[in-house]
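Q: What would this chain look like folded?
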Amino acid sequence: MARLPRVHLAGVPEHIIQRGNNRQVCFACEEDFAAYAHWLRQYSDAFGVHVHAWVFMTNHVHLLCTASDAKGISLMMQSLGRRYVRYFNGQYRRSGTLWEGRFKSCLVQEEHYILAVYRYIEMNPVRAGMVASPSDYHWSSYNSNALGKVSALCSPHPSYLALAVNETERRQAYRDLFQSEVSGAMLLDIRSAIKSGMALGSERFKQEVEALTGRRQQKDKVGRPRKEEI
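A: My prediction, written as structure tokens:
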């Protein structure tokens, strides 16, 4: 079945994931991570994209972003992907593709969902068994969002800012969110949304996205296959 077109809306957060082709290594050393972070900052600025949360793993990346223009995220990811591939191929004397096709993304409802996606992204190294605490992993936004580490890349989302009125209390409230794990149901919802490219949120939010974009945001009901799928 053909993959649904990606949906982008100005001002609506998106969860983005890009994997290495066949899950191959995309970052082989600290220099690689630093290069990717540098170009992510460059292209996010160039295309008006605010980056709220991120994690760079050895063979994939997660980003949580909001664009001021509906085309901003696509332009950012295309430019970033091409620039990093040129760097990586030159660095390791290789040729050909690095990424697993196009990046995946889904729109995220702010209420009840966006802070769960923050946590989902920054807990990735813990779930992978790489570290015991998200603060132990250097290449994520956790230390900026939770501990106040200065980052030119990190742009707080209004839902994050609403956690408290001052920075100290806000960071404490954010750390408190990590005292409990993202629920199993929410994990399934996040993974299903990014895999399908459909919006992550309430039924009303999905209906609103459908109305604005004209693109389906609900899975087909189980039943007789449509003609083109037979």
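Residues 222-230 have pLDDT under 50 and may be disordered.
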